[in-house]
Amino acid sequence: MEPRVAVVTGAGQGIGRAIALRLAKAGLCVVAADIQGELAEATAAEIRAADGEAAAQVCDVCRTADVVRTRDVVMERFGRWDVLVNNAGWDKVEPFVDSDEPTWRKILEVNLLGSIRFTQQALPIMMKAGYGRIVNISSDAGRVGSTGEAVYSAAKGGIIAFTKTIAREMAQHGVTANTVCPGPTQTSLLTQIAAGHPRLIDAMTKSVPMRRLGQPEDVAAAVAFLASEDAAYITGQTLSVSGGLTMC
Question: What is the number of alpha carbons within 13 Å of residue 205 lying toward its C-beta?
Fold first, then answer.
């Protein structure tokens, strides 16, 4: 049997990179998609150095043409598309009353509409094959809200609802759809956000019952499970990876 093929968006760094590496370790061919081509290539090169198969693809999830081009590249090179991990994300922490519409639009475009665009391109291929795994990366902010992240929380909450609906529509076609919600996770994006909020990291760490921030590998492990054969009867579910920060 040919190896399954996974596309991971935002795979150039942080959680996306960890997911790409973990899926490759599980034997999948990985297409590392990222708006920063050099980072995507670095992830793909790391996979190949470990004797895995990977390709890098420059892709802005806010541009439908980029998403369609990624689909075409995947099918031309591999002839199949089995797993999609919608991980690409962006945020800006600030009080909602101080935010502006361009910021709202960027947050919604990257976090919500980017996932919707990719999912629409992947599903017809998966339906035809009678097999597919969609894993969307949301956030605990989308489950319980988060101060300073009103629109981000709205976008991530939208991902959860979107995923559940896709799970219902696709169940009869052999395609599952699930959501992983990281809690505070040590990534470059978090470092950038925390730069203007000196006590943020310490406050986040203290709020987690395990008293540590998540690592990208923690999230990658959950994604790898939901993308695996062991999760064949799991769909429409939302899994928090947050060290106990949320428990509902």
Answer: 12
